[in-house]
Amino acid sequence: MYYSGQELHVEHGGGDPPPYPQAQPASLHPQxxxxxxxxxxxxxxxxxCTVVVAVAVLxxxxxxxxxxxxxxxxxxxxxxxLNTTANPRPVLSFNLTAGLTIRNPSRRTAVYYxxxxxxxxxxxxxxxxxxxxxxxxxxRRADAVRAVLVGSSGVVSxxxxxxGEDNHTGVFPVTLWVLGAVRYKYGGLMTTSAxxxxxRCPLALKLVEASSRVExxxxxx
Length: 221
Fold this sequence. Notes:
Immunoglobulin-like; alpha+beta
């Protein structure tokens, strides 16, 4: 190396120029990261839920379960008296007989009744109940059952004034509730947990006089 005027000359020995580092070629197939165990579990859970929902929808489309139908064909109140002199509260004596029809309208769905009863209410207060002898119904089947409620009730405080008015008119507003625990069978599949059946049957009863047919309102099934 030497200086000449304003110029700077750099000399180096002969031979090849000094090597420069070469860039490494990018990998054509980058390594994929394995999904974590948490992601695998989430994906498996979503897939399982999708399968369950799809099967449930398919079963519903095939079997199309319909609401159970309940009706009171006739009800007779042979005794309905309130003893206001009973101590410590009035006692209601009753004798109610009701013929009911319970129908399963579904063609491919069978119904199992784990528990089934008819409960009598007068002005919102329960006075008696009777078990109904029905445990199984096949598709599109109607069964006639009989409920007999006999006894006396002094557990609640009956309204003597309201009872006197109803006794004067000769018409007693009695509500019959059909209550039960129900399981359904769709072909070879059966529900493992029971659902509650609740049907309301409003009646206007006269002593020793059969009522007309009343269609009940099924609230839950």
